[in-house]
Write a structure and sequence with these properties.
This protein is α/β, with parallel strands linked by helices. Helix content is 33%, strand content 22%. The two termini are 18 Å apart.
Amino acid sequence: MLNSRIVITGLGLTAPNGNTLSEFRENLLAGVAKIEVLDMRYMGPVPAGVCNFEARKYQKRKEIRNGTRAGSIGIYCSREALADSQLDWESFDKSRAGIYFGITEHGNVETENEVYNISQFDYDTRYWSHHHNPRTVANNPAGEVSINLGVTGPHYTIGAACAAGNAGLIQGMQMLRLREIDFAFAGGISESIQTFGIFAGFKSQGALAKHEDPTKASRPFDVARNGIVVSEGGAVYTLERLEDARSRGAPIIAEIIGYHINSDAGDAVLPDSVRQAECVRAALAMAGLQPDQVDIVNTHATATPQGDIQECKALGEVFADCPNTYFNNTKSYIGHAMGAAGALELAGNIPAFEDLTVHPTINIDELDEECKLPNLVVNNPLRIDKVDCILNNSFGMLGINSCLIIKRFTE
């Protein structure tokens, strides 16, 4: 039972450059980045990735007003994934569904806004919203989805910094294998652009990107890269055991075959290439794969100078003799969607199973010598002979590393 094959049967997303997988993929192949300038409270103009999905497609105006941006993102993505899965939701036992969302942080947005609001009334707490507590509890995004969909099985969020998108998928997979549930909504959610604290924090670290053209501000591996573009977004997958998916004739998008999470146990922000390499090797071992069996590696690279270099060092070691393994990066289009990053970036690569095309890393004018991975696809998409296996890296602060591997589904 613990070795049940777990498959992806549905996918819903919102990214700065697309609100469906087909739109997202089309823009990745066309080199279309969608980063705009926000006038951030206390800071002025900053580049950011903003999603433009239609929240009222699945929520009433009052529900949007009383809830959170993260909750709306989660509801939109979950509803889209559910539709994609073709599950007969009306007759499904809602106690056998679970919701597992990776997040970077939650509650800062709402707290900052409430403090600012009462500052306009001489800090009189009578003006503090009575919706504050349910908005700010850590399980909020998953909880809002539970209420919207009527899911009576477990719901919770996984705080794993920027490794959280992968962690949400891993948690859903584990719960299915334990047979705690029969159907999982799993992935990552981020509302990070709503809080000035994240922007200010990265700026104080010297890690906030800037560029006269916001669409070129996120430039992993480029010699002139200067930091992170903060973005919002979400990607939710429906996961099932293969036998259950087969029994209802579900569409099968891909199969999850390996994963690993480990910790650097070192610095709070500086990555460790040794631990990252160990994480990738452990995921490959679980999947029963050799490195040269991986066709595409989606890199985590955030466009911070040391972060990109350390990841390239790790990948260069693991994939040293893999002439048919290709590398790309998705943050160059949409910025860093924090808790949603891993899940969104994996989604952007999934269509390669069908179109056999590696979307490129864009915004590279001059490749950093220390980031010259073999077969790094730069600025133009590349069609290759086969795509059977995709590996997704996602790393986060406090030294948490995650790696997830999916493969083309075969009987």
